[in-house]
């Protein structure tokens, strides 16, 4: 199924580019959808260089659109991100102004363990304006996207058996972590 989608999109590069950017926007708006599959598909259809450009465009557009939407519906989203109240970096961002908020967004985007949706939501609570947020968010995502796209491009060159082993290992780790968290909390 995956190879069918990739094959169809490979035949239509403009459609594939639009699809990749749209999926990145959707992932940013929801705040919790993983973008690794979007990265894998984009790098599989395009080469690393063009895929990275499309991923950066998609991430930037997604951050800006979600920032605008979050600002409009901020009271409804507060309960969706309880980590805002518990994360000291996100709390600092809420209270930051000017260049402090700009550099905080860059830092938080670079850190892999901070959810993108939480960074965007925290920025909407701050006094930060849209243009500085968009620029800082894009600058901060570039290193992470480069590493992710580079790793994916090399993983796609592996034999199918190794790719499946990596996917199964990752799924096992996620399942183990979920079960460990669930039973540790009880």
Automatic annotation (TrEMBL):
GO CC, alphabetical: plasma membrane
Name of the protein in question: TVP38/TMEM64 family membrane protein
Primary localisation category: membrane
Keyword terms: Cell membrane, Membrane, Transmembrane, Transmembrane helix
Taxonomic superkingdom: Bacteria
Subcellular location: Cell membrane
Listed transmembrane segments: 14-38, 50-70, 102-123, 130-150, 162-180
Record's bilayer topology term: Multi-pass membrane protein
InterPro entries: TMEM64, VTT_dom
Family, as annotated: Belongs to the TVP38/TMEM64 family.
VTT domain: residues covered: 33-153
């Amino acid at each position: 199924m995956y190879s069918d989608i990739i094959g169809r999109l490979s035949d239509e590069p403009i459609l594939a580019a639009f699809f990749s950017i749209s999926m990145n926007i959707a992932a940013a708006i929801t705040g919790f959808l993983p973008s690794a599959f979007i990265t894998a598909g984009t790098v599989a259809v395009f080469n690393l260089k063009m895929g990275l450009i499309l991923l950066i465009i998609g991430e930037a557009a997604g951050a800006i659109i979600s920032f605008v939407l979050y600002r409009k519906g901020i009271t409804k989203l507060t309960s969706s991100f309880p980590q805002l109240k518990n994360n000291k970096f996100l709390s600092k961002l809420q209270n930051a102004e000017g260049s402090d908020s700009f550099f905080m967004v860059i830092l938080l985007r670079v850190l892999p363990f901070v959810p993108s949706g939480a960074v965007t939501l925290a920025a909407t609570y701050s006094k930060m304006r849209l243009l500085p947020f968009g620029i800082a968010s894009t600058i901060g995502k570039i290193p992470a996207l480069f590493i992710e796209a580079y790793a994916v491009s090399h993983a796609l060159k592996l034999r199918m058996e190794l790719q499946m082993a990596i996917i199964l290992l990752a799924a096992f780790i996620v399942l183990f972590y979920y079960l460990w968290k669930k039973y540790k909390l009880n």
